[in-house]
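chain below, 110 aa
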Amino acid sequence: MANNFRLLHVARMAVDEVIAFLDTSRRRVPNDIQLRDAAESITANIREAYGRRKGVERNQFFRYARGSAEETDEHMRTNVASNRVPADRYWRIHNRLIVVCRMLTKLMQE
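prediction:
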């Protein structure tokens, strides 16, 4: 159960920072709606997975969450490459998303 809480905690930190970036950005962010949707679906799918029994059903939602984390990271990478987001902010989010993806992969193997 502690790992479940840790996963959700790390995912929420990443999602909250992405949303804060979108809400405070002075420059137009390409695909901002898609980025927001992808980020928000990470934690939503993790919560959905916890409501399912272990196995194929739960893993499907973990896969959705992992895909959304990867999509979020790619959108953020594009924004750091175009100088819309500071590199230190991007790397903090990126590293959290990597941890989320690894944790999700491990949970799907249990």
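The chain has a mean pLDDT of 94. Residues 2-109 form a domain with the de novo design (two linked rop proteins) fold (CATH 1.20.1440.60).
thats it, cya
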